[in-house]
Amino acid sequence: MLPTVSLNPRANRWVLFSFSFLSVSFVAGLVYGWPALRQELLDDGSSLTEKQLGAAFTVGAWSTQGNRFITGLTRDRFGTRIAACLCLTCAAAGSLGIALSDASNGAALGTSLFFVGVGSGTQLCVQPVAGLFPKHAGAVLSTLSGAFQISGLVFLVLTHVSDSLKASFLGFAIFILGLTVMAALLLPAGGSFVLQKDENETNVDDSNEITQEEHVDVPENNVSDPNANGGKSDHNESEREDASVLLENIGERIEEPAAQDDSKEESHPTALQQLRSKEYLGLLIWFSICIVPLQYYVGTIGFQLEQKGDDGFYTSLFSITYAAAAIVAPLGGYLADKFSLGFAHGLATTLTAASLFILASPTSLNAQVVGLVCYGVGRMLTFGMYFSNVGKRFGYSNYGTLAGLGLITSAIISLLQYPLIAWASEGHEMPVNVACGAMLMAVLPYCYWLDRRERRYGMAPFFKHNVLTGG
């Protein structure tokens, strides 16, 4: 067993958050830097068609979404440390595959992107670090979603840092292995980042508190002489009655924690009960519909910009604006905390729809920059609000299962992106862009429903309410 680093608890939570941010920034969203990698492959003489390149991206994008469900189950079953190390190792293997494969080998490229996509599970593993910051959990989760966006810049950097794609990706694989070692040393073995007190120690403390509170000191002048009044006293009988009442009260005090525990268990339903709630089903439908246009945009933005006259500058700018959206990541958490998750969901959906409508319009490349910014911010908010919704509304006891199931469901539905990409590559990009924008506008009623629900019942997690009402 590898040793773990032991730090002061207050310092430790910042170390864990810093490592979580670092690992997500370098690994979690690598596949979404695809436009830069696609351009470099074509510059290196790749003979792959746009459909073949789109197929390779689809494999990587599906892996990024779908494998996080398996990661969630692995994390819940075997713990954070093992799951994170496996994800990081797969990302290193994928990077090595890109370094060693031929630019015209579609199968090798798709396989490599598949393993790179598995690395996205790192984000799911480290997101419960938000539990160490209970008053700012929304901001922490949104910040990690911003880190996910930053990782989309990695491919752009790797394709420019060296003239050799092989050398840059080989070095990056070694770097990821270094992160794997750090994960083994820093991350908790269990599923939670929050350490619990030893149960026996807690029981002793509780017992002491009851003893200290209920102990009664009898003043010396109240002690009766056994020879006085014939050795009997009405006052002594009264004291005995008081003592009996006191013992009954102590018994009731001791039984209270058990009753509280039963109530606490009732207020934390099982994963199946949460999965069947209306609120989770609504979140699942919203996220699954949003993911298709989001993935389609990344898969086609390169050749769509080229059709508008781009020589590569705006494709690189896409990666930059995509990563720069991380700057406003804490804003998503603030909006969710200040107003509601429903409001933040609606903003994310509207911005993403706007980016597709702008892409469909015959505007100049300079005007397309507005669309690139809308997409970057909209996508960041979409993923950030999805994970924030799961954590804030359903808690962390079943976090891996709930978040992972949504990811694999959306991954299956996102396979629709490939026929859309193929259709767009054949010259039908304008109607596809408009259709994708319309899909996003169609889910705005869910955002309004969630906002009204939060305002009616409050923004506390719907544990007990969901179970009792099916809501």
Describe the protein in words.
The chain is an all-alpha fold and 471 residues long. The chain is built from 21 helices and no strands. It has helices at residues 9-28, 34-43, 50-78, 80-100, 106-118, 121-126, 137-150, 154-161, 165-186, 199-214, 234-266, 271-275, 278-307, 313-324, 329-338, 341-360, 365-394, 399-413, 417-442, 444-457, 464-469. α4 (80-100) runs antiparallel to α5 (106-118). The longest helix has 33 residues, at 234-266. It is globular and about 55 Å long. The model is unreliable at 1-9, 197-233, 245-266 and 464-470 (pLDDT under 50).
Percent range for β-strand residues: under 5%
How much is the radius of gyration in Å?
28 Å
Total beta strands: 0
DSSP helical segment count: 21
Q: Tell me the helix content.
A: over 70%
The topology string of helices and strands comes to HHHHHHHHHHHHHHHHHHHHH
Shape verdict: globular
What is the mean predicted local confidence, pLDDT?
81
Q: How far from one another are the termini?
A: 44 Å
Secondary structure category:
mainly alpha
How would you characterize the largest beta sheet? none
Could you name the ranges where pLDDT drops below 50 across 5 or more consecutive residues?
1-9, 197-233, 245-266, 464-470
